[in-house]
Amino acid sequence: MSTGLHIARATPEDAMLLAGLHRTCFDDAWNAESFRDILAHPKAFALLASAPGSSEVDGFVAIQTAASESEILTIGTVPGARRSGCARALVRAGAREAEAMGAEEMFLEVAVGNNAAFALYSGLGFTEAGRRRGYYRSAAGPVDALVLSARLPLPATQR
Ligand SMILES: CC(C)(COP(=O)(O)OP(=O)(O)OC[C@H]1O[C@@H](n2cnc3c(N)ncnc32)[C@H](O)[C@@H]1OP(=O)(O)O)[C@@H](O)C(=O)NCCC(=O)NCCS
Fold this sequence. Notes:
This protein is α+β, with helices and mostly antiparallel strands.
């Protein structure tokens, strides 16, 4: 099913916008400089999703590719636009773009306990490839990350 979202490539001028979006999604916010560095890399890119005809951006994803591998560096949907298929559309579009750049596999890390993100990825065909102990820091202490991976293209699903 199509979400009808408009998905566009971010440019270096979007670094500030990306930092603002990131701040609405994560406690550990990345600054504009971090996004400028990502977007300056020839094998990395970011995508922005918005509702048709809207100038508001609802979600973003940043992806790094390296030879046959690609990695989702960060992804988020602003709280008011969640659960409408935005992140799923971004992962799908990002996977297609990474594949066009030569990637055959996609990886990502997700914090143990981030059930929304885990459900998103497993619904798209990602499976557990490993675990990084204490990868994230939280107010409650270190949190493990699960490493998830999927072969590209992602398996076709109903959604
Ligand atoms: C995780 C996140 C990106 C999901 O974004 P989203 O746009 O709401 O996700 P989608 O609407 O595309 O959801 C796709 C699927 O993911 C799963 N999912 C998403 N949010 C969920 C939730 N809160 N609880 C359970 N499952 C959820 C569902 O399977 C959903 O499909 P369905 O709605 O048809 O049941 C969003 O909650 C977010 O930005 N969280 C904060 C940042 C973050 O954790 N990023 C991921 C880091 S690895």
